[in-house]
Amino acid sequence: xxxxxxxxxxxxxxxxxxxxxxxxxxxxxxxxxxxxxxxxxxxxxxxxxxxxxxxxxxxxxxxxxxxxxxxxxxxxxxxxxxxxxxxxxxxxxxxxxxxxxxxxxxxxxxxxxxxxxxxxxxxxxxxxxxxxxxxxxxxxxxxxxxxxxxxxxxxxxxxxxxxxxxxxxxxxxxxxxxxxxxxxxxxxxxxxxxxxxxxxxxxxxxxxxxxxxxxxxxxxxxxxxxxxxxxxxxxxxxxxxxxxxxxxxxxxxxxxxxxxxxxxxxxxxxxxxxxxxxxxxxxxxxxxxxxxxxxxxxxxxxxxxxxxxxxxxxxxxxxxxxxxxxxxxxxxxxxxxxxxxxxxxxxxxxxxxxxxxxxxxxxxxxxxxxxxxxxxxxxxxxxxxxxxxxxxxxxxxxxxxxxxxxxxxxxxxxxxxxxxxxxxxxxxxxxxxxxxxxxxxxxxxxxxxxxxxxxxxxxxxxxxxxxxxxxxxxxxxxxxxxxxxxxxxxxxxxxxxxxxxxxxxxxxxxxxxxxxxxxxxxxxxxxxxxxxxxxxxxxxxxxxxxxxxxxxxxxxx
Length: 557
What we know:
- By secondary structure, this protein is an alpha/beta fold.
- It contains 18 helices and 22 strands.
């Protein structure tokens, strides 16, 4: 090697070292709970999510949050009182009182850029005339470490010393979502995360609710709303290409587009790759909540009534069990009637990773009548999960359930079969998988609407919902429905498992129960499953796995 070549090589090494020192690689920490900070910034978004309204300012603030929170929990955002995760609203005060965080408010976008602009290397501009340009801008913001602005906010960004890094105005005029997504893939996919991808779906048109935007920017994740609907074959094909390139342990963050496909189509597709969903697109403060773990002196405890080994004896009566779905964040947790009757709250085991302080807040606020139940890690349809991936999903679940003291597995499968919603039954091989991989669970519950899959093995009852309590069904009709169910099932004990749609109030549920002709005993879910295991008055039943059949496999005990 000549002296000149050595000089060139040494110069290249110097440039590489300088690049590393001047622009350190950022490794996102959201999803890794740690110690709470002593101080944090506080910003409020406006209760207007129209593209032609306050969305540009809101998007700027949430994107800045993602930049600032990439390696530490520095910024918390206040969402409107009627935001979908309304039961998370008390969390800011809990951080202040329990964790001692002192919040300093940033009142305006100008103040936010003054305090947080240092976390940006520049800015990117989205096009108000092309909604999907927002997805490209968020993707670019994560890759380039940029603030996200529309045309109206450019002067403000430049006032704070930020330089233009990408401008998408006019770039996508007249193009389809598919064309825009392909362009973004060609430009940014190679630099995007393979551990996370964001589906910024939900509402469409002139409105967008990008609560997940902070996670998108922090993780450097690709952002899209590609369809899972067979009516959109080209988008569906590209959708599959992206999922196939993710790591087996990757997370799908966000939610499908209400304007393109159904929840069943979307989750069937993601589950078919063994991938986990954590929704919704409106999920707030993910970068902040997921970096603050349980308090040092806190251990999560449930209101457990029985152990796996215990046995109970059912009497000749009706046992009724109420399960509130979709976590406390969307439900009735803050209502004054909570605690008056036994109530079971579906709280995924992933809360220990994505919002541990919220889990702590709920656990400390629980009454003796509140019982937490869980399920496999992430939102998945088990029937669609490849057999090779299923044991890994169960291992992850089994590792997390003790951390949040949960002992009952909740299952919901709406694998798309071209049938209307309300079809939630499982074939025997799926039930076999749960029994094989969750031997320590007290039992299993299944469904969303009423379902017909039941089993009992090794003291573990596998029960499906007998009733779905729709929040829009008149009380008198609900009372008549439940009375009829008890008449149609005259053998006692009868185990009546009710799914309470999350927007029902507890006051409404109490009123319904008081009007029933035969007063059931309302019990916690672990008790309910142990009672069901003591006296099997239900049929062991599965969905036939043959694709051409609507038949059932029945086994009368």
